[in-house]
Design goal:
The complex is a heterodimer of chains A (298) and B (275). Helix content of chain A is 33%, strand content 22%. Chain A is of the alpha/beta class. The N and C termini of chain A lie far apart (38 Å). Chain B is an alpha/beta fold and 275 residues long. Chain B is built from eight helices and 14 strands. In chain B, a hairpin with a 2-residue loop joins strand 12 and strand 13. In chain B, helix 2 packs across helix 3 and helix 3 crosses helix 8. The radius of gyration of chain B is 18 Å and the shape is globular. The relative contact order of chain B is 0.17. Classes of the chains: A alpha/beta (298), B alpha/beta (275). The interface between A and B is large, with 62 and 57 residues.
């Protein structure tokens, strides 16, 4: 069986400029942030980002000039507010948005996963999302005589980026019981390549103790990288909560282009490794804070 | 507990009134879920379950079925809200299998930047040019779906103003009654907007032309004030205009001491008199 372990540089090296990259993400949850930072470090350009609900990662990628289009249902850091660098980039025309509802995005990715031309949905009928997007969404009659549906054209991302609780070196990916945002059941299956970071890489024998928790088969995965706290500053239940201070440090500067660029340079690009990045973000004290029960619902 | 102390007038704030006014629309057997930054709806669901509707079914963050959170945490999308659930709806497709079936998740609370006279909502863009908007808003998320699939929709808005209550939204991110009348029905969309709870009043929709209509004003607010803060001609009800029922002492105690001691329900409010 082929081994899939790789360095983060090599894994992200599989992403080419101009690729469509699907990112696991909710507002403050579960994104593979080490992969995001490495995309910024490698100065990827012209990336089209697919995201169900984007958060701070989208803001950073916009600030660093990595993305020029976004396909997704929402971008928000919830209680930390709008993503201001992303917002400025869209309002200036530097990032083009294809806004979909969650069911329409799931349908587009679902069609991609099953190699169908499209999948129908009944979501979003009556909204302006459909007329706005004739390339990918069309109302169509039900061939069996029922109500019209929205045909959602297949979306096949070049790469899917995922963070997991553990993996073995063959790329089998395991999750602790929790919310698997934004749906590991569809997004990675639609993509041509799947890059994974995991909190830990363990012996396959450990995965065999709980095969019901294995959510992606290794043969689908192109590269797996061990990155402890790889979702920081996002939450990754049940392991840790989001880092409130890091989010606030970003929103403090994110309205100002120069200060945002400085943050990207010093906090995201300069640290040469995950331990160095975490140390600059507050080290063990910060990690103890995000592991605390009130952060993880425990 | 004697009913009498519950009837005595008590001091409350408008966020607390919005919670109780919204909670009154949720009953035993209803099924509800919440998305992000939904402190008022979450407080309303928790209050309803502790008082008049113990069998209101709630999927916290659209993940945790029947949770028992200790209190409302700083995010309505994080694990602390769905602690002690009986089930995780862990894959997002499973959640959409429920939502896209008109039989399940019967009611949904909608927060939006703009609401128009027919209950259409906008969370996408402000301005005429979709690709060069004046303001890029967060986006529709699941709202567009929930609005089109026969759910009863309850809107909440903490800042009733001409900026937010507009004749026609700049972009329809969630379908209300569209152009009004039977436009929604003609498109095959069931149910739809039922009520709007703002910081000034409670509104509903005229059963025939489907225009927004004043239903009750909050104590201390006049109909003229609400109409002046609304960017379209707000219909008045036939007959007397009632006042929104104020929170009871017991409701206030639960909201303040049990459900939301950190006051997260106040986020998003513009305090009158403050700049």
């Amino acid at each position: 069986v082929q081994e899939k372990t790789a360095s983060i540089e090599k894994a992200v090296g599989l992403i080419r400029d101009g690729d469509v990259v699907a990112l696991q993400n909710m507002a403050t949850q579960a994104a593979p942030m080490a992969l995001v930072r490495e995309m910024i470090r490698q100065q990827k350009r012209g990336i089209g980002l697919v995201v169900l609900v984007g958060g701070i990662a989208v803001d950073w990628l916009a600030a660093a000039g990595v993305i020029d289009r976004l396909i997704g249902a929402a971008v928000s850091m919830e209680q930390f507010g709008l993503c201001q660098q992303y917002r400025a980039a869209v309002e200036a025309g530097r990032v083009r948005v294809e806004e979909l509802s969650e069911s329409l995005l799931n349908a587009r990715l679902g069609a991609g996963a099953r190699q169908l031309p499209f999948l129908p949905s009944r979501g979003a009928i009556g909204t302006d999302l459909i007329a706005q997007n004739p390339d990918n969404l069309r109302m169509m009659d039900d061939p069996f005589g029922g109500r019209a549906v929205v045909a959602c054209r297949a979306l096949v991302p070049d790469v899917a980026l995922v963070h997991a609780h553990r993996a073995d070196r063959f790329g089998n990916i395991q999750y602790e019981p929790t919310a698997m945002w934004p749906d590991l059941a569809v997004m990675p299956y639609a993509a041509r390549r799947v890059l994974v970071t995991a909190e830990e890489i363990v012996d396959s024998e450990i995965l065999r103790r709980h095969p019901e928790r294995t959510v992606l088969p290794g043969f689908m995965v192109d590269a797996v990288v061990e990155v402890p706290y790889g979702a920081h500053p996002m939450s990754f239940f049940p392991a840790y909560g989001y880092d409130e201070r890091f989010h606030l440090a970003w929103t403090e500067v994110s309205c100002d282009g120069d200060r945002a660029a400085d943050f990207v340079e010093r906090r995201l690009r300069a640290p040469r490794s995950q331990p160095e990045y975490l140390e600059a973000a507050g080290g063990e004290q910060m990690l103890a804070r995000i592991r605390a029960p009130q952060s993880t619902g425990g | 507990m004697s009913g009498r102390s519950d009837d005595m007038p008590v001091d409350y704030t408008v966020d607390e009134l919005m919670v109780t006014a919204l909670a009154a629309h949720f009953q035993d057997g209803d099924q509800a879920c919440n998305g992000m930054a939904s402190f008022i709806p979450v407080a309303a669901f928790m209050l309803a379950r502790m008082t008049h509707a113990p069998e209101l079914i709630w999927i916290a963050s659209s993940v945790g079925l029947e949770p028992r959170p200790k209190r409302i945490p700083a995010s309505t999308l994080e694990a602390a809200l769905w602690s002690d659930s009986v089930m995780y709806i862990d894959q997002y497709t499973d959640f959409w299998n429920l939502v896209l079936n008109g039989r399940w998740i019967t009611k949904f609370c909608v927060g939006a930047a703009q609401i128009d006279c027919h209950g259409n909502v906008n969370n996408s863009v402000i301005g005429d040019d979709y690709h060069r908007p004046t303001v890029r808003l967060p986006g529709t998320a699941g709202l567009a779906d929930l609005c089109s699939i026969g759910k009863e929709l309850y809107y909440w808005h903490p800042d009733h103003s001409r900026r937010s209550f507009v004749e026609r939204v700049d972009f329809i991110s969630g379908a209300g009654y569209l152009e009004g009348g039977d436009a929604r029905v003609r498109l095959g969309l069931g149910s739809g907007p039922q009520a709007v709870v703002s910081n000034l009043a409670v509104m509903d929709f005229h059963p025939v032309n489907r225009r927004m209509r004043l239903k009750s004003v909050h104590p201390g607010v006049t109909a003229e004030e609400v109409r002046a803060a609304t960017g379209f001609e707000l219909l008045l009800p036939e007959g007397a205009l009632p006042e929104t029922a104020p929170p009871t002492r017991r409701q206030l105690q639960l909201i303040r001491e049990v459900i939301d001691p950190d006051g997260l329900r106040r986020s998003g409010f513009r305090i009158r008199g403050a700049s």
